[in-house]
């Protein structure tokens, strides 16, 4: 960009700049800074922090949904949760779903983005096609695939010439949810990759070409390394979103837990405990356990990132 | 950017073999992506009996608008549509105002406890309605906001992620721009509205569009907080009410397409800005 010229223009102004900054710090800084963040912090406190603290408190009680007086029960809920096979099963389903979805979506999004980036004609059309499913509500995507996977009347078996009972067979039910999710959400990561590809400076490729690097080499030594940080972001966002899967799984199974309870996810189990069994205390305890798990994943990512930065890159 | 990037490509460049291969490949992939939507469209134009015929077929034998007509006559679909619109527009407006202010406050002003509060907001990235559904519900219940618009809207209005995106963007705005204005006697607020906001239009657009998409498509929270079918939003009504009478596939597909249509139209018109916005906000370039 034009950094060099901007620097020279700005330099004479440095003296008054310092004075101005000092006024800002001393004079209006505090009150105004506070007012800027106040509206957000108010909403954040009411709908994030307070429920979190409240959930923590409720998790030590036997509260029910109607708000009758709750009794303090100490760690009973947590003790019960750790021995609850259904909770572990639900956690396993969410983890399995995440394990299946994240690698597939990352690779698929990257390939689609490269395809859309390198085609010269009709860019907007490909962009639209790949991103379109993401614009549907999750419930609509789920209903649509429920219909496509319908064994007798659905298009999937018809096209593939199969007679698989996708939605009612234990071994296929989660796979159906995964396929629906890939189709529905890959567009978002695709867009992130596409933006990142457009941000790689063209002169890198030109220099490589002059040095005689072929297309394959340019991809291996320029494109992929330049995409490393966006890949980290895509993977992190996908892990967090996938662990919280709920919509597709319940809608595809008509709000049930699936064949032999094979698609009941962790969020679904929490809500069942809270709203169907009316055990708000217990539901809060497993929510807190889940929160700790998610926080661990997020912190692990931050720690990895920091290590990598310190590791010379 | 640099001049090298500005070399204009001739739009009528001849087809090279590699471009032909890529285009064919993209066409095939697009067909796979569009097939489910076409299937939904064709199903919605069949009669209910034809929709469940075995073996199934793509095109309707009798094209009929029956399902679409029934959708408007029997369902609350227009209610749901209006509810979705009210909720999404309110959420988007509030989120834009609140997170732009907060992003700027954190990026460019000083106040006591800033670092601590910033840390708390960062931690908030890990909390979502999915994680805190039950306690969030009891909180909203205590405020008496179950089955109200406010109950649907306000809990969606504190997205830490949007604050962080804008925070990153504001940090990149040259300080000199503001400082010149301070010297001319402008206050913080004036600087914010006359310099910062116009500069950050692409980022604000991206934040607004993504907030609108996620709010329009949000299922979980409205599902928890509404019982009254007249108050439901589009995804919510379609998934719960339309399914509860025994599924009528043609009608369900028509409803689904209705629910997706507004965002598809928005995207068709604004896709260039959306992609630019993603690049601009640093969402992609972290």
Taken from the alpha-carbon principal axes, the silhouette of chain B is globular
Number of domains of chain B: 2
Q: Helicity of chain A, in percent?
A: over 70%
H/E topology pattern of chain B? HHHHHHHHHHHHHH
CATH homologous superfamily descriptor of the largest domain in chain B: MetI-like
Low-pLDDT stretches of chain A: 1-17, 22-30
Low-confidence stretches of chain B: 1-7
Rg on CA atoms of chain A, Å: 26 Å
Category from helices, strands and their pairing of chain B:
mainly alpha
> Which fold name corresponds to the CATH topology of chain A?
MetI-like fold
User: CATH class of chain A, anyone?
Assistant: Mainly Alpha
Share of helical residues of chain B? over 70%
How many domain units of chain A? 1
- Record field, number of beta strands of chain A: 0
Oligomer: heterodimer
Structural class of chain A: mainly alpha
Quick recap of the structure?
The complex is a heterodimer of chains A (313) and B (286). Chain A is mostly helical.
How are the SSEs ordered, and which strands pair?
The complex is a heterodimer of chains A (313) and B (286).
Chain A: H1 3-10, H2 14-26, H3 29-58, H4 76-82, H5 85-118, H6 123-131, H7 138-149, H8 155-160, H9 170-199, H10 202-210, H11 215-226, H12 228-243, H13 247-252, H14 266-276, H15 280-310
Chain B: H1 17-44, H2 48-51, H3 66-74, H4 77-108, H5 114-123, H6 129-142, H7 149-153, H8 160-171, H9 175-183, H10 188-199, H11 201-217, H12 220-225, H13 234-244, H14 249-280
């Amino acid at each position: 960009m034009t950094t060099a010229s901007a620097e020279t223009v700005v330099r004479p102004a440095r003296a008054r700049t310092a004075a101005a900054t000092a006024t800002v710090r001393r004079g209006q800084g505090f009150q105004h800074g506070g007012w800027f963040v106040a509206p957000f912090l108010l909403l954040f406190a009411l709908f994030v922090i307070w429920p979190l603290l409240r959930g923590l408190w409720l998790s030590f009680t036997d509260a029910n949904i109607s708000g009758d007086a709750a009794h303090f029960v100490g760690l009973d809920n947590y003790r019960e949760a750790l021995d609850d096979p259904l909770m572990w099963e639900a956690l396993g389903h969410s983890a399995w779903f995440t394990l299946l979805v994240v690698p597939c979506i990352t690779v698929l999004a990257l390939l689609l983005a490269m395809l859309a980036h390198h085609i010269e004609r009709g860019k907007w059309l490909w962009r639209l096609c790949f991103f379109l499913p993401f614009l549907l509500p999750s419930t609509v995507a789920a209903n649509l695939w429920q219909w496509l996977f319908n064994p007798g009347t659905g298009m999937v078996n018809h096209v593939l010439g199969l007679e698989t009972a996708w939605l009612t067979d234990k071994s296929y039910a989660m796979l159906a949810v995964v396929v629906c999710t890939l189709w529905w959400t890959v567009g978002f990561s695709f867009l992130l990759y596409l933006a990142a590809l457009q941000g790689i400076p063209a002169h890198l490729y030109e220099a490589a070409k002059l040095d005689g690097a072929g297309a394959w080499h340019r991809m291996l030594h320029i494109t992929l390394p330049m995409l490393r940080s966006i890949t980290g972001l895509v993977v992190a966002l996908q892990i967090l979103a996938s662990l919280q899967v709920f919509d597709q799984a319940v809608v595809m199974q008509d709000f049930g837990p699936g064949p032999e309870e094979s698609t009941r996810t962790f969020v679904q189990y929490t809500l069942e405990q809270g709203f169907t069994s009316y055990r708000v205390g217990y539901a809060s305890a497993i929510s807190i356990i889940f929160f700790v798990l998610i926080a661990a994943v997020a912190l692990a990512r931050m720690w990895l990132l920091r290590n990598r930065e310190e590791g010379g890159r | 950017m640099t001049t090298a990037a500005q070399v204009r490509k001739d739009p009528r460049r001849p087809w090279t073999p590699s471009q032909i291969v890529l285009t064919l490949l993209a066409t095939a992939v697009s067909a796979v992506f569009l097939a489910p939507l076409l299937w939904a469209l064709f199903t919605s134009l069949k009669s209910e009996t034809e929709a469940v015929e075995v073996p199934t077929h793509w095109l309707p034998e009798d094209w009929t608008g029956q399902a679409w007509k029934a959708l408007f006559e029997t369902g609350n679909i227009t209610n749901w549509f209006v509810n979705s619109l009210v909720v999404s527009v309110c959420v988007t407006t509030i989120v834009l105002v609140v997170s732009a202010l907060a992003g700027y406050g954190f990026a460019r002003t000083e106040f006591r406890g800033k670092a601590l509060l910033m840390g708390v907001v960062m931690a908030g990235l890990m909390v979502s309605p999915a994680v805190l559904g039950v306690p969030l519900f009891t909180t909203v219940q205590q405020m008496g906001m179950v089955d109200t618009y406010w109950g649907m809207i306000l809990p969606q209005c504190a997205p830490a992620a949007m604050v962080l995106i804008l925070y990153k963007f504001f940090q990149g705005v040259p300080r000199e721009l503001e400082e010149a204005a301070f010297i001319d006697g402008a206050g913080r607020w004036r600087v914010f509205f006359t310099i910062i906001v116009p500069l950050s239009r692409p980022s604000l657009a991206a934040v607004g569009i993504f907030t609108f998409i996620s709010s329009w498509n949000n299922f979980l929270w409205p599902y928890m907080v509404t019982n009254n079918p007249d108050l439901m939003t589009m995804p919510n009504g379609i998934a719960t009410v339309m399914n509860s009478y025994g599924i009528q596939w043609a009608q369900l597909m028509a409803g689904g397409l209705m629910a997706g249509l507004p965002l598809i139209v928005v995207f068709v018109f604004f896709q260039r800005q959306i992609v630019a916005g993603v690049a601009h906000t640093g969402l992609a370039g972290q």
